[in-house]
TrEMBL record:
This is Diguanylate cyclase. Keywords: Coiled coil, Membrane, Signal, Transmembrane, Transmembrane helix. Residues 23-277 form the EAL domain. The chain holds residues 760 to 1038 of 1040 of the full protein. The keyword Heme does not apply.
Length: 279
């Protein structure tokens, strides 16, 4: 609150005003971004730790706005969710990644997997399941090559209807990953009820590996928990060889991170695959 000069206080300050305007400004430009083709997908490889080979990619959206410049998904996804624009953006992301990965599979003769981030707003749509099935049908991608990444925020709303949708998709062979695992507030009992195939251990656990004494056993416990539940365990944000060595020794299934590669534009994906390096 600030003195307004007339002896009264107003609940308002300049930084709040600026943040609000910035949100409004982003939302305004977000509205035309789809039609203007301002979005692009980058792809970050995932490596199978046992073979050391790239087994798939995560699609990550990039927005280059002619007026705002590059805007991080960390700042615009939330705004896209609040304004429900994420429904259209997310549909484009899914269709585009399925088509792209089918092309890479055909070109390389290897069934690479594609992981796509899905917002809870999308999951809540009545036609979400249909939309996923259409994306597979039109691209020709096999269901087993598609992984949907969801976060623990799905625990907040309509839990049952969402679980039913995920259950159905999983029964069709589509994989479901729980993203940022360990950062939310999910309890282990929730974890048991969720129809998932993969645990994606959050980067913060990987970061802590070299710093905190107990973090190594913590990471090993998550890997064991996942395996006991029949899940694949993926580590995200792996930047150092020592982290990869530890994860390999601990039986983690896959790694993703700058150590292997940053997310790259689609033109650079094939360069990562030929010649195929072993990590
Ligand atoms: P996320 O799903 O947890 O994705 C991982 C983020 O970590 C990505 O940031 C990726 O570029 C970054 N990253 C990967 N490896 C490393 C590493 O070794 N070190 C560091 N420091 N960072 C690494 P990005 O691309 O900026 O995306 C941020 C978040 O935005 C994502 O986090 C995801 O929640 C959201 N997002 C991105 N694309 C989409 C999308 O198409 N749809 C939806 N709904 N959300 C998206
Ligand atoms: Ca993700
Ligand atoms: Ca994350
Ligand atoms: Ca995430």
């Amino acid at each position: 609150a600030k003195e307004d000069g007339k002896g009264t206080y107003v609940v308002y300050d300049k930084s709040m005003h600026t943040a609000f305007n910035e949100r409004m400004n982003i939302e305004k430009h977000l509205r035309s971004a789809m039609n203007n083709n301002e979005f692009e997908l980058y792809y970050q490889p995932q490596v199978d730790i046992q073979s050391g080979l790239i087994s798939g990619f995560e699609a990550l959206i990039r927005w280059n706005s002619p007026t705002l410049g590059f805007v991080s998904p960390l700042s615009f996804i939330k705004i896209a969710e609040d304004s429900r624009l994420i429904i259209y953006i997310g549909e484009w992301v899914l269709r585009e990644s399925c088509i792209f990965m089918k092309g890479i599979q055909d070109r390389m003769g290897i069934p690479y997997k594609i992981s796509v981030n899905i917002s809870i707003i999308q999951l809540l749509q009545d036609d979400f399941v249909e939309m996923v099935q259409e994306s597979l049908a039109e691209s020709g991608l096999k269901p087993s090559c598609l992984e949907l990444e969801i976060t623990e925020s799905i625990f907040m709303e309509s839990f049952e209807s969402i679980v039913n949708k995920l259950q159905f998709l999983k029964s069709q062979g589509i994989r479901i990953a729980l993203d940022d695992f360990g950062t939310g507030y999910s309890s282990l009992s929730y974890l048991q009820q969720l129809p998932i195939s993969t645990l994606k251990m959050d980067k913060t656990f990987i970061d802590s590996l070299s710093e905190k004494a107990y973090s190594q056993s913590f990471v090993q416990t998550i890997i064991q928990l996942g395996h006991n539940m029949g899940l694949e365990v993926v580590a995200e944000g792996v930047e150092e060889i020592s982290q990869l060595d530890f994860l390999r020794k601990s039986g983690c299934d896959k790694v993703q991170g700058y150590l292997v590669s940053r997310p790259v534009p689609k033109q650079e994906v094939v360069e990562l695959l030929e010649p195929q390096k072993r990590y």
